[in-house]
Amino acid sequence: MILKIKHHTNYQYPTPIFPEPQHLYFTPLSRGYLNIIDFKLEVNPKPTGNAIRIDIEGNPYNQCWFNELTDHLEINVEIELELDQLNQFDFLVEEAPKTEMNKAVDLYLKDQLSLKKESVEWLKTIENNDPISFIGSLCQSIHDKWDHTTSYDTELLDPNKCFDFKAASCRDLAWMMIQMLRHVGYPARFVSGYSYNPELTGHELHAWVEVWVHGAGWIGVDPSSGLFITEFYIPIAASYHPTNTLPVQGSYRGSAPSELTTSIDLQVKKRQELTN
Length: 276
What we know:
The structure is a single chain. The chain contains seven helices and 16 strands. The chain is of the alpha+beta class.
């Protein structure tokens, strides 16, 4: 299948500001089930410089810098992807090797928050004998216990507060699940990107979890849906902490507040439709 993505982002300022270098995370991450056919990034005002870089966790981004004042920052992205069917269970779980790889994976295990007693006790009710069964059961249990809501709050919800609430955003559910996984010894990271579901609207910009299992590598799960991810999940950035996955990362000089507007359009076409 072919997935076409259009993502519009605009920051408006009542008085001119000077933008510091901006890091733009819009390039899809490399995954075996997706192939980037076309990628277009347009920034207005036109940057003085625009360089493709890779951050310390392997995420590609565009580093843009400017030499003039502006009252807006507009970003338009068009992506065309070819998607193959994803089989999340095409692997063998292996014994953890004693290699340097373990030290790299430790980054996604050490950043732990202290979970409240009620959360820890609830975790004990999830059977933890087999890694894949545990991950799937935890994901499904979070989906069953919490409603998935839309939130425009810029602050990340504390996992203990999220545990007490009956509803939370995809970002907050993912962050809570990550802390639960780390608590019981599973390295986990936060993933932001796009998801396509023709039956839902407003969920195109999405967040989910990747869990490290030796032999399988990073396995994607979505606590908002209670399922392992499919080929319709397009990762843009993955990190040990959610703040490192924001699409636009940067600052500006000036006292003017910013007003953000954004829109996303996703369309899927089957291969036979393209040849007719």
